[in-house]
Structure formats: structure tokens, C-alpha cells
UniProtKB/TrEMBL annotation:
This is Alpha methylacyl- racemase protein. One of its GO terms (molecular function) is catalytic activity. Belongs to the CoA-transferase III family. InterPro entries: 6-blade_b-propeller_TolB-like, CoA-trans_III_biosynth/detox, CoA-Trfase_fam_III, CoA-Trfase_III_dom_1_sf, LDLR_classB_rpt. Pfam families: CoA_transf_3. SMART domains: LY.
């Protein structure tokens, strides 16, 4: 090897260039290196002669990693394969020119955006980023300082060993696992960091690893490069190339599929991509494929958290589709999307979509049945195999594992072991680019050889190659020169990716013209988020000489077809004819989506059976009149699911488990006989079962479902307690005992427990104690879900007419309930905005006229009992003992009677989204 390196400059296993090579020159060397190391990529020297790197000699990204060079090289490889695809279509795409300075901006894409002259930080503060589509962010990280610092690097009790903590998108549960309060009253992010650090230093790195794996959290020891290479996981990953795709064995019988030849001359014009991803890496891959001409459909769950700020850049050029893969109707729609797709991007945990029927083998089977091969791309943190392969992970985890964070800490002058994230989301953004190369190579091979293809992209692989000796690191004097040129602010272990982006982009803005250069940014006059919307333009422009006018054709095309609404497009983003990102007919699409979503849902209602004439009838006959029923959520006929006195006897509360596809409901029985039960039945009425037998529970009323841990929480009225059990009835335990049925007697109504709801975010459950009938002494309580000792009830609200069923909106921190007490405040539907702790009303004065601390949204029910909420359509459903089911909007307006039968008496209801 003529090139020389110096070992150990940045710690064990690091290799630093002995002599500096200007950036464009180094890019040519690395292009040859990665081309030779990539199976399926051309080795023809003539192909590389068509590539020109140009721009500044000095990198503009801080630190010793050659991230900017890698960005330029991977984009050049994209151009090379794109040129090959164009040749298959009979198009001469000309030479490939890569601006190395602009390539350095690419990893900062998420922050390189402005709307109405506002920066990304300003848009977050004023809500601009939330203007289009559903708020999937929900303040999951930004709501409190503690939540924000649940993503940071901390010291451990092991000397010189630091650990990347990452609370996933559930910082509340993560911090609670360590005895920390996500909503603790700390004054700053610095105080939050110190608070969390005091806990983390009690653990060794292996102890943190074990605890996080036990709870299913992310987390990673900050290894040196040598330590990573010596791990079994590092060695397994090293066995795979960075560009890692193959034809699936047994698919060679599928015929070649030529590329469509269209007016749009870009290489991927006519190719359909289905993107199943969130955060950065997968969406960046989809955005890059869209820029190359592909029709990209982003499928996103309306129930999974995401970082909303990313939407203003990474939805460019895509159609978006809101589907919940826990719902069979939505799964069927995804199957229809994949039916004619060419590429599927799966960027969740490895094999996690198998449970929903969209794993590799599932999609390959679809391709075999249609007789046309498909490209399936798995993007994850650790790679295709090894003991960490299925572990959750983000870019920061890969940075910590491979040694990138360790090396950055060393380069910035910190003590041994202190680790700092790379300054930009390199692994995320460049993994997306690697995925583009994989997809294009596989599509090229499909056009020539046929078959289906599988590719694996690993965040850790992108990081690890930057530490290879063949790539090398920049020497300290170059790192210092970059710092002196751009004057970057301090980069420390506590900083989040978002903060580091601000440090870097702020330095660029203040010390160079790189953000103001002609052609670097593309501006759109009007978008769904505002006016003068600027984002970074695509890096690869390999067709500048011959077909440049056609390159952005899709970006200017106003080709939106309203029939695509069948895919529930809650936010359909395209580039319109005036060059704008258009939220096409947003209101119409929203309304169409709502109607479609409502049409696929069912209401299950319980008829207690006490409204029918019973004069002279036996108790046995009366008890046999209960029934489990269903009707369409948009209105329609009522049909029976189950009417069998063995399993339905004075039913009261009901929930539905999507995972098990079963209803779980309570039967009150006769209080004095202590014969209440909990039963279960399939949605079609088959396989009824008794889950909790009589004698185990007294008078079960409403119940709540913990979908994560698969547990039922039940209020027992005359039993005067709140209990919890598994879905099969096992592990039945008492959480709250409000009274003693033996000592107090069943008539002690002040202690009767009725409604119940869970708040996983707060770690609390809420229940109602209704008090005497129409007595005005009802109360709502809460207590912790997890507790090492006896739980102490906290009274959230008192002096209520007769509160019954409960619902909580965790995003809005708001409690809702029905009340069957006396008018004017009873027989109502109510709302209470909770304080930050969730244990009392939000700080506000009572209404001077009514004295109420809560809002009455709807009045004049006939004994209001059950309630259900459809988040997709923001619609409430309330049942009453008068035989009616009502519907109204989120704030109580547009009240409509969905169904009425005076010979029925409805108790609990639940909304079911299933077939």
C-alpha cells in the first residue's frame, strides 16, 4: 500500500493519514476503493473516468471522520449506476459531476430548510412544522428537559467508559425504569443532564446494557474502534460489504423486467417504491429515490411517534399514506400498494414486520404470485445477522458502537473515554444513500436477469467503514484547520443531534458563503407549510449536459389523481406545476380519508338487558336478556355478536384486543350473589370464554386494556376495588382497595369503583367512585401503575354528580368522562385539562357562575354510560341507558343520534378497527 497511515492517534484501532490529500483527490481514491469492495458495482475504469469531483480542498464538516468524502463518493456511485440504467433505456446520460462542498451539506439536510424566511428552530417554536398532516411528534422529546436529555452520552461507574443512553420514543417509561421522573421540575437541559447522570454513574456499562435489553430500550457502550472490531457483532458486520444486495435464491425463474421508457428521462422514472420508515435514514432513502424519478409512497402509522421537524424536508416528492398495520383493513390496503411495487423499504427493527405479514418472505411470496420480481430493502442499526441484529437502534447507537463517538471525543480534546456524537447525522443520511445504490443495482439486475432481490443496509456499517485503515482519518492538524476556518461552537457528550446540527449550520452561516451559493438550494413559492419554502437540492446531477431540463420533471408535475384517495392519503405531498410542494386539495383529502377510515370501523355495544318489560319474570329470565352487539361506526343496522346467559349476564364494560382479535367484557351479575365474571369472545361471536370466574371478582364494571403488557384493569363496584389480571384471567391482583365489602357492606356507595382508564405516559391509572345515585358526591382518583408498596389514591376531582366511564387524551393531557347524575351537571359528557403531573386540574380558577373546574361539553343524555373516541375522525361516541348511541365532534359540537332503540339499555361501548 503506497498510502501510509499512523496508528493510535485517536485511540486503539484508529488509523490516521500520514499525509493530507485534497478533498476532490481523496474522493477519486475512495471511489475506486468502494467500487472494488462493492459486489455488483462496475469495476470498469472507463466508468470512473466519467466522474468529476470538484470543490474546496478542505472539508467543512468538523472532526477527523471523512464523512464529507464518503458522502461525495456514495453520490458518485449513485450517478454511475443511474448512468447504467439510462443506458438500458437507450439514453446517454453524459458525465457525472459531484460538488464535494455540496456533498458536505447533504448530511445536514434536515436543518437546511427555511419557510417564510424562518429557520427550522423558529418553525418549531411557532408551530409551522405542524401545519401539514397529523402531529406525530406529540412533544415526545421536546416536552420537558428530562425527556430531551434521555438521548445523550453519559459516564458510567466504569472508569473511562461512557454509554449512549437513548429512551427511544418513550422517554417516560425509559426514565421511570431508572427511578427518574420525565416531568421533573428541572430548570434547564444542563440540570436535566446532571440529574440523569447521577443515576447513570451508579451502573457499569454491562449493567446498563442488560437493563436496557431487558426493557427493550436502545442503549450502547461507547467502544473504541478496536473494541468494536473485537466484538462478535462487529466481526459479523465486518463479514458483509457496505453495499450488500443479492438475488433471492429460488427467484431466478421470475422474468426480466425492463425499465419503463417515459418522457421523464431520469433513471427511476416509472419505478414504484413503498416506504415503511420513520425518523431520518429510511425517509432520506425514499426522498433520494424520488429525486431520481421514482414514485415513492410513504406509509406511516398515525399512532407511531415521529420527529415532525423532518417532514418539511423528507416528504418532498412523495405521496403519503396513513395506515395502522395493527388493523386488518389497513394491512389489506398495504398489500394492494405492494401488489404493483418495484421496491419496498423496511426501516424498522429487523424482521419486526413479519408479525404484520410484511416480512421479507411475505413480500417475496407476493412477488412470486404476481410473476414479477421485487426489491426488498432492510435498513437497521446493526446489520443482517449476529446477536444484536434484531435489537432496536438509531444513528447514535451506531455511532457509539463502532467507535465514531469515541474518536470524536478524542479529537475534540476530551479525557480518555469521553465520547461525543459526530456533528451531523452521518450514519442516517449516508445509510439512505447506500440503500439507493442497493436499490438501483438490484433494479438494474432485475432488468437484465430477472428475479427478486434482498438488500440490507446497516447504520453501523456506514460508521464502521469510516474507521477502516483503507479509508483513514484526518490528522489533528487538519481537524484544527477546519475548526479555525469555520469556528464551530463547543460539541459535548450531552448534545442531541438537533443541537449539533444547529452548531454546525450556524457556523457555516457565519463564516462562509456555502449556504448562499447558487444552485445549492431549491425554492418553492408556496407549500403546505407556508411560502418561500427552501430545501437542499439533490446532490446527483449526472445528466447536466444532455437531459437537464427533464431532470426535475416530477418536481414540477401537477399529476395528482383524486382516485388515489382510496389509499387514505392524509397528506399527499407532490411538487406542483409552479414548483411548490402542494398539499393537494387538503380539505377534500382529509374528509375523504375520514370517511374511509370511519367506514372501516365498527362499534361494539353492550345491552344490559334491563329495559324490556320484566313484570312477573324470574330473575333468571331477566339475567338472560343481556347481549353483545355491533353496528357500523358511520351508522347502520345493529347485529348480534353474542346472546348467551352463560357468557352474557348484565354486561357493563368492554374493550378489544387487536392483537388477539377478541373482545373482553364484564358481567356484573347480581351484587348480593357476588357472581360477577369477565368473559371474552371473538368479534364474530365464536369461541366465548370465561376469563375471570364468579367468586374471584364481585361486580366488575368498566375495564381498560394495557396493550403493551396485555393486561386488563377492572373497576369492581361493590367489591370496592381496582384489580388487574392477564388476558387469560391469571395473576389477578388488587391495586386499590377503597373499602372492605365484608366490613362496610355492599351498600357503601361512596367507595364504589366504576370507570377506569390508563395513562402509560404518566404511569397512572384513573378510576371513578360514583357515590350515591344522583348524590353529587362522585370523585375521580388516580394512582401509579407501578408501585413497590401500597398505592395511595390521589383525588383528581370531587363533588361530581355521578361519574361513570373515563377516557384520556395523553397528547393533550386531558381527561374525559360520562356522568349519569342529575341535571344540570349530570347526564353530561365532560372534559378536564390536567396539570403536568396528571394528578389534578390544570391551574385555573373555577367558573364563577357554575363553580366547576371542568367543562361540560354535551348535556341531556338519558343516563350516559359508555364512551369511545375515534382519533382519525376526532369523533366521540356515547351510549346511554335510554337505548341511544350518540356521536359528536371533539369539542362536543354537531351532536347526532347514531342509533336508538327504546327497548335496549346500552352500557359500555368500544370502537373496533378490524375486519
Amino acid at each position: 500500500m503506497s498510502r501510509k497511515t499512523v496508528e493510535g492517534v485517536y485511540g486503539d484501532g484508529t488509523y490516521t493519514d500520514a499525509a493530507y490529500s485534497p478533498l476532490p483527490v481523496e474522493c477519486h481514491r475512495l471511489l475506486q476503493h468502494f467500487a472494488n469492495a462493492s459486489p455488483g458495482f462496475t469495476k470498469d475504469a472507463k466508468a470512473f473516468e466519467n466522474v468529476r469531483f470538484y470543490g474546496g480542498d478542505l472539508p467543512l464538516i468538523p472532526g477527523p471522520l471523512k464523512s464529507q468524502a464518503l458522502s461525495a463518493v456514495l453520490h458518485a456511485m449513485t450517478g454511475v449506476v443511474g448512468k447504467e440504467i439510462c443506458a438500458l433505456k437507450g439514453i446517454d446520460a453524459g458525465k457525472i459531476a459531484i460538488d464535494v462542498d455540496k456533498s458536505g451539506l447533504y448530511p445536514a439536510t434536515a436543518a437546511l430548510v427555511s419557510i417564510d424566511g424562518k429557520t427550522l428552530v423558529q418553525m418549531q417554536k411557532d408551530g409551522t412544522v405542524f401545519k401539514a398532516g397529523k402531529d406525530l411528534d406529540r412533544g415526545v422529546l421536546s416536552k420537558t428537559h428530562m425527556r430531551y436529555r434521555s438521548w445523550a452520552i453519559y459516564p458510567t461507574k466504569d472508569q473511562h467508559v461512557w454509554y449512549q443512553v437513548l429512551g427511544n420514543f418513550d422517554p417516560v417509561r425509559f426514565l421511570r425504569a431508572y427511578g427518574l421522573d420525565a416531568d421533573a421540575a428541572v430548570s434547564s437541559r444542563d440540570e436535566a443532564y446532571e440529574t440523569i447522570k447521577r443515576t447513570m454513574v451508579k451502573y457499569s456499562a454491562p449493567e446498563l446494557e442488560l437493563k436496557n435489553m431487558e426493557y427493550g430500550f436502545c442503549g450502547q457502550t461507547c467502544y473504541t474502534p478496536k473494541q468494536w472490531r473485537n466484538t462478535t457483532m462487529g466481526q459479523r458486520l465486518q463479514a458483509h460489504p457496505l453495499v450488500n444486495y443479492r438475488q433471492v435464491k429460488g427467484s431466478q425463474f421470475l422474468p426480466p423486467i425492463p425499465f419503463p421508457v417515459l418522457q421523464d428521462k431520469r433513471p427511476l422514472a416509472g419505478i414504484k417504491v413503498v416506504e415503511l420508515a420513520r425518523v431520518i435514514a429510511g425517509p432520506a432513502m425514499g426522498a433520494a429515490l424520488a429525486a431520481l424519478g421514482a414514485d415513492v409512497i410513504k406509509v406511516q402509522s398515525p399512532n407511531l411517534s415521529d420527529l415532525q421537524l423532518l417532514s418539511v424536508t423528507f416528504t418532498a416528492g412523495k405521496r403519503t399514506c396513513a395506515l395502522d398495520l395493527n388493523v386488518e383493513g389497513d394491512r389489506e390496503q398495504l398489500r394492494s400498494l405492494i401488489a404493483d411495487a418495484d421496491v419496498v423499504i423496511q426501516a424498522f427493527r429487523l424482521r419486526s414486520l413479519e408479525r404484520r405479514g410484511f416480512g421479507l418472505e411475505d413480500v417475496l411470496e407476493m412477488a412470486n404470485k404476481r410473476g414479477k420480481g421485487i426489491v426488498y430493502i432492510d435498513l437497521n442499526c446493526y446489520g443482517p445477522d449476529g446477536y444484536y441484529a434484531e435489537r432496536p437502534g438509531f444513528q447514535q447507537i451506531a455511532d457509539a458502537a463502532t467507535g465514531c463517538s469515541y474518536v470524536c471525543g478524542k479529537a475534540y480534546g476530551f479525557d480518555e473515554g469521553v465520547s461525543v456524537l459526530p456533528s451531523l447525522p452521518i450514519a442516517d443520511m449516508l445509510s439512505g444513500t447506500v440503500g439507493v445504490i442497493d436499490a438501483m443495482l438490484a433494479l438494474r439486475d432485475r432488468a437484465i436477469h430477472g428475479g427478486s432481490y434482498h438488500a440490507t443496509v446497516a447504520l453501523a456499517a456506514v460508521d464502521a467503514v469510516q474507521l477502516d485503515e483503507e479509508v483513514g482519518l484526518y490528522p489533528p492538524e487538519i481537524v484544527k484547520e477546519i475548526q479555525e476556518r469555520y469556528k464551530f461552537g463547543p460539541m459535548t457528550p450531552d448534545l442531541h443531534v438537533e443541537e449539533l446540527l444547529s452548531v454546525v449550520v450556524g457556523a457555516w452561516a457565519g463564516s462562509t458563503d456555502v449556504l448562499r451559493r447558487s444552485g445549492y438550494m431549491v425554492k418553492f413559492a408556496e407549500t403546505a407549510w407556508g411560502n418561500d419554502h427552501e430545501i437542499l437540492s439533490p446532490i446527483v446531477d449526472p445528466w447536466a449536459e444532455t437531459i437537464a431540463p427533464a431532470l426535475p420533471a416530477r418536481h414540477r408535475r401537477a399529476g395528482v389523481v383524486i382516485r388515489d384517495c382510496v389509499y387514505n392519503l392524509t397528506l399527499y405531498v407532490v411538487w406542483n406545476s409552479s414548483g411548490a410542494i402542494a398539499n393537494v386539495t387538503a380539505h377534500l383529502l382529509t374528509m375523504a380519508s375520514k370517511a374511509l377510515r370511519a367506514g372501516s370501523k365498527t362499534l361494539v355495544a353492550l345491552d344490559i338487558g334491563l329495559s324490556r318489560p320484566a313484570i312477573g319474570e324470574s330473575l333468571k329470565h331477566i339475567m338472560a336478556q343481556g347481549e353483545v352487539l355491533r353496528l357500523p361506526a358511520r351508522g347502520g343496522p345493529l347485529t348480534s355478536i353474542l346472546k348467551n346467559p352463560k357468557f352474557v349476564s348484565l354486561p357493563d364494560g368492554v374493550v378489544y384486543s387487536r392483537k388477539r382479535r377478541r373482545l373482553y367484557y364484564t358481567n356484573m351479575g347480581v351484587p348480593r350473589l357476588n357472581d360477577g365474571t369477565i368473559c371474552s369472545v371473538a368479534l364474530d361471536g365464536s369461541d366465548p370464554q370465561t376469563v375471570v370466574n364468579s367468586g374471584q371478582i364481585h361486580t366488575p364494571k368498566q375495564l381498560a386494556l394495557d396493550t403493551v403488557n396485555e393486561k386488563l384493569y377492572i373497576s369492581d363496584r361493590e367489591g370496592m376495588k381496582v384489580v388487574r389480571c392477564n388476558l387469560d384471567g391469571s395473576a389477578l391482583e388488587t391495586l386499590i382497595k377503597s373499602g372492605d365489602v365484608e366490613a362496610d357492606g355492599i351498600a357503601e356507595q361512596m367507595r364504589w369503583c366504576v370507570g377506569i382508564v390508563l395513562s402509560q405516559r404518566k404511569g397512572l391509572f384513573y378510576w371513578t367512585q360514583k357515590g350515591p345515585s344522583k348524590g353529587g358526591q362522585g370523585r375521580i382518583f388516580c394512582a401509579p401503575i407501578d408501585s413497590d408498596g401500597p398505592r395511595k389514591p390521589i383525588c383528581v376531582l370531587d363533588k361530581l354528580p355521578e361519574p361513570i366511564d373515563l377516557h384520556i387524551d395523553e397528547e393533550a393531557n386531558t381527561l374525559y368522562w360520562t356522568d349519569r347524575g342529575e341535571l344540570p351537571f349530570g347526564n353530561t359528557f365532560n372534559r378536564l385539562r390536567l396539570d403536568d403531573a396528571g394528578t389534578g386540574p390544570e391551574a385555573q380558577q373555577a367558573d364563577p357562575r357554575s363553580g366547576l373546574r371542568h367543562e361540560i361539553l354535551v348535556q341531556n343524555f338519558d343516563e350516559a354510560i359508555g364512551l369511545a373516541f375515534d382519533a382519525d375522525t376526532e369523533t366521540w361516541f356515547v351510549s346511554d341507558l335510554g337505548g341511544a348511541i350518540w356521536t359528536f365532534d371533539k369539542d362536543g359540537g354537531n351532536r347526532t343520534k347514531l342509533f336508538e332503540d327504546k327497548e335496549r339499555a346500552f352500557t359500555g361501548i368500544v370502537l373496533v378497527e378490524d375486519s
